[in-house]
Amino acid sequence: MDTRSIMLVGVGGQGTLLASRILGNVLLSQGYDVKVSEVHGMSQRGGSVVTYIRFGEKVYSPVIEEGQADFIISFELLEAARWLPYLKKGGKLITNSQQIEPMPVITGECTYPQDIESRIKEEGADITVIDALSLAEQAGTSKAVNVVLMGVMSDILGFDEEIWSKALEQCVPPKALEVNKKAFALGRSIG
Length: 191
Prior knowledge:
The chain is α/β, with parallel strands linked by helices. The chain has 8 helices and 6 strands; from the N terminus they run βαβββαβααβαααα. It is about 40% helix and about 25% strand.
């Protein structure tokens, strides 16, 4: 199998790191060689966070260069636009519709860009926009956006749902497991 590349992008506090652990756990359980690299930036202040996940028969580097990502899973709309150059031709971009204002917007230096989805489509990207925040809230917590998006991704990757359930059990704290299983199921149902 050729090496495949997935980027998880968002802002600090959205759970990209937990999502990468869940996804990495699933891929390892399927016998793939998996490499994961996390870039935190100013994550604790709402800054950009990106995780590279590469998997295949043999993977030599976790780094994904521009134009190489098979999938970009974005937890926030502006982050989808920021990382779009990394999506390969024919790749798939899945993004949460949520808009989190970055510091320059909060301070009034800039305005949040409008029509991001249409601008991304104009670039020729295959984009799916999901209101993952509403689904997470429906499951019981706004903090489960990450797991909703993993549910969507699970349907795309096609691994058995039981494998994902085991990964959730291994990666999510017990007190948050049931709400995250609900969030995952909601994401998988629309995947």
